[in-house]
Amino acid sequence: MSLDCGEVAYDLEEEELELEFKLEEENIWALRSANCWYYEKKLGERRYDLPPGDLGWPFIGNMWSFLRAFKSGKPESFISTFVNRFGHTGLYKVHMFGNPSIIVTAAEACRRVLTDDESFKPGWPSSTASLIGKKSFLGISDEEHKWLRKLTAAPVNGHEALSVYLKYIEESVVAALEKWAGMGQIEFLTELRKLTFRIIMYIFMSSESEHVMEVLEREYTALNYGVRAMAINIPGFAYHSALKARKKLVGVLQAIVTERRERRKKNSQTVKKDMMDALMDAEDENGRRLNDEEIIDVLVMYLNAGHESSGHITMWATVFLQKHPDVFRRAKAEQEEIVRNRPPGQKGLTLKEIRQMDYLSKVIDETLRVITFSLVVFREAKKDVRVCGYIVPKGWKVLVWFRSVHFDPETYPEPKTFDPSRWDGFTPKAGHFLPFGGGSRLCPGNDLAKIEISIFLHHFLLNYELERCNPASPVIYLPHTRPKDNCLGRIRRVST
User: Fold this and answer.
1) What CATH code is carried by the domain that includes residue 400?
2) d(CA 305, CA 418)
3) Does residue 473 or residue 4 have the better pLDDT?
4) Domain-embedded: residue 58
5) pLDDT of res. 32
6) Range of the domain at 362
7) Number of domains composing the chain
8) Residue 110 is labelled as binding a ligand
């Protein structure tokens, strides 16, 4: 029997390739296991009670798959991957934003994490805290947070304050809509963000020059793109640009704070006019006052949150109304009824009328659910905690994944469908609707935001319509959900 040398060589080559493939697979497995080995080994026996999951690659963890999913136009695919691999467990171990973490997707678990202050504290990535401010609500202790929240929430959400701001908001909205109707083609989202920024600037700093407002609003745009980006401080990356924007923001706000302090020294009888005055006068039980850094970080946080969410949700609510004629007609009829029932001589909206906008409130809630402006908030375990049968180790980050809660088909049938009527006679259980977070860290400006949106939609529904240039414009999901063209279109007046 003879052997063909060519066949022998071919067999040997095949074996070498198979061996190389196996070695490559082993190397990949070793790399993907590195994070698990490094972080879980420290836990000892507790590691067996961790939720299922995957800590991803060394250093980058699961960030590439997260960014890939959200930039692909299919953001739900990120969590779907875990569900498909490990089942509907509600908690998954991951490595994100530089830390070993637990993603929480089940409503009950989200509620537990947000409300259990004994077990969880804010756990925002250091990069996010660096951008928004370590002295803002993101980085301060529970005691400091309670004091600052009490100080700032009432002037933003209190009945008296909202009544005062209502007139300014309405005047600004009416003027803006009239102006846009005469401008032709506009980026609707861009103009809305300018409007909501003007409103929050008025509440916190009374007024500033157009130039200052334009500078601040422009830098906030750059800041936001870096908040959920990977913390790569190299030119060309979003985080690097965001750090530069933060520096400029601080510089502008420092000049404003310094000028305000000088003015107050010269005239000690000046009546408090805005939130900056309240922050400068704030004093705790020990007589401690806020320094400039603390005031500026609070301003950076509030000015950012106070215009981004309102601007985006107002845009999406307008888009959804225009896209669903039946919803538009029902919401418009409600607003016309409110105007008809208005006492003779009354000019402008009242808080009582806004509270009567039952259907419009459902439109706003449905928009908040579908869009989920803040897709996640960050907490950190103060100690080992058991949640839904799994261990959350002390020091690990906890990512409360709002998108999964708001798209749960058991709570919201056909969850991707915009349907305000789903709220008729329906009140979600605690933890099942979290547009403004929950617990002691609930967004303090939630009432103000809904009132801003209601006032805008009231006047839009009565007198205007939106004509989009690119109704099929692709949607971008980071840092916030928006059309790629910023909702390019025209605002048309339909009545006089």
Assistant:
1) 1.10.630.10
2) 25
3) 473
4) no
5) 64
6) 63-493
7) 1
8) no
